[in-house]
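Ticket closed. Logging final result for SPG16 protein.
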Amino acid sequence: IVLTGGDDRLWKTWGFPDGNILMTGEGHTDWLSGCCFRPSGTQLVTSSGDTTVRIWDLSRRGCILTLRGHSRAVRGCSWHSCGDFVASASMDGTSKIWDVNSARCRYTLRGHKESVNSIEFLPFSSTVLTSSADKTLSLWDVRTVSRL
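Final structure:
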């Protein structure tokens, strides 16, 4: 199964090798910039130009949580390997760590001078890697909300 998102505001799961669309999700009001399966495979996260991050439940075939807090488009998203946290990167120059269980922002990472274009948790750690339009990469310890 492959997961995609695009300018049509939809995410899609595709079966291979046939290339059939297995499932489609709609709800964002602008382009999708990122999509990622939860490590358990039961949910996914999407990020969008509409400034939101959404959590989708595949068995319910719908959005179960919309995370709001960025002031500009969200450029990327990723799950922590434990499945309880989602990270988002935004054109507002910040990244956020979201607690999926409490449905709130746990930490806001500030320090890039321009758009944060991607974010990724290092597997089985509290370290996040961000990349920015300011031509820098940063490693963050999300427990202390500081750059490494």
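The radius of gyration is 15 Å. No further action required.
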